[in-house]
Amino acid sequence: MGALSLLLFGMEMLSDGIQKGVGESMQKLLKMISGNRFTAVLTGMAVTAIIQSSGATTVMVVSFVNAEIISLSQAIGIIFGANIGTTITAWIVSFFGFSFSISAAAIPMFGIGFVLKYFKKLKIHDYANVFMGFALLFLGLGLLSQSLKFGEKTTALILGLSNLGIWGNLTGVLIGAAMTALIHSSSATTAIVLTMAYNGSLTWELSAALVLGSNIGSTVDAVLSALSGSTNAKRTAAVHVGFNLIGTLIALIVFKPFLSLIDVIVPGVPTENITTHIAMLHTVFNISATLIFLPFIKQIELLVKILIKDKDKKEDETHYVLPSIRKTSHIGVEFYQLTTEHEIANMAGKTMDMFDIIYTSMLYHKKEELEENLITIKKREEYIDEMQQQLTEFLVKCARMPTSNMKIRRHILTEIHIVDCIESLSDEICAIMNTLYKYVSADSFNPESEEYKQIKDYFDLVHLFYETVCQHLVIGFTEKEKSQHSEIEERIDKTQKDLKRLSRHRIENGQNVKSELQYIDIIRRIEKAGDWIYAIVRSK
Predict the structure, then answer these.
(1) pTM of this prediction?
(2) Average pLDDT, the chain
């Protein structure tokens, strides 16, 4: 258990180091995904090969589908590629773990990594965990090799499974699936199988069965992350389970010929280089399964949509943003920035809908419609409050992730501030609608009055201001654009002062005081909405 834990910790530290060093490049890689199934497969391969975890990749993909960043067909292609990418772990363990002694190199490598932590000015300290992670991985693998040596009776019992034929192979698959589901790492299961096979505790056939089973067990993280997700997130997890399950069943049906094929590809008998045989089997299996299913991505997408039907989603139904971040803390935080950007844009879009509702209300100003619109806006405002809470909690978790550096944390603080500004803006819009309803419902209200035209024109100015800001919410603003927005904000402030001065003059001349106070309240809140919009501009 200690050796396995050290091995897993080394893998996680290695992944963290790679993420900190090349995280932004991986983010760009993920953004390159297109509708092309081959591009999606290559992306899944590359990402999984870097972060050394197909489970983490699929959890990330499920989360992106849940947030509607990528489509279901793109997710299917990435999952296929992830299964191929995860096979690199078996080759690393096979080559470094058993071809030569690594225990002597582990301690110096750890020392090099520790020293690199202090070279912050050279910007190489992010790679310190790469060396330290490799060292711990090698050390854990060496200890695992020493500890996984059983006595004659235990070895005989394990080897007895191989004499049960198809039932023994099926038992091996189930054990491999259970082990992987328990420790949440197919890479660790593969390392254990390679070690036991190298020590002579496993036969070639039983090792193959255990590795096949690990592919099924690796789907547990995707299933768990999809439980609270959208329908498409559940479909993505279902595809992952189905792909690995059906692929394994096909391999079991042609088990003997499949092993013979590996024997042909890898020279020598399995007993002489069994670790290479196992690594090759893992690779050939996943490549073959991908080649079989890749031409049928559209059909698979259609089938899974039939099996898992769309739910009747209520308007403004709250959805959760990557609830499984705690299970995948070793994924680079850059991946999650794609989701947060999408969710912030979604939140801004909901607020824009509130603006549009008020704009429509001002045009038609019928009391019955105003009542309905007031209820709708209040629901939207409550929804945005929930979004703010969830997004803020999620962003705080991102900031605490081990792969977050100072630059990323500053960016996260900016996003938290923008989320807060959008929520405060929605509060002001709700207040505008509430006061507008009272203003229009009054007996003294005249839709043709100059005062009402002033309100509409003033609101339209802020409405268009927010629309312009939303268009640049993700990409940011140039200095020229910030200057232009500053001028608009000054114009909004000046207009408020002018309109309030006119209202005071009307009060002095004997106009309805209650109506004028409501007028001033509407104007004041519209100006406050402009302040929150400009606060978003300053944040970017």
Answers:
(1) 0.66
(2) 81
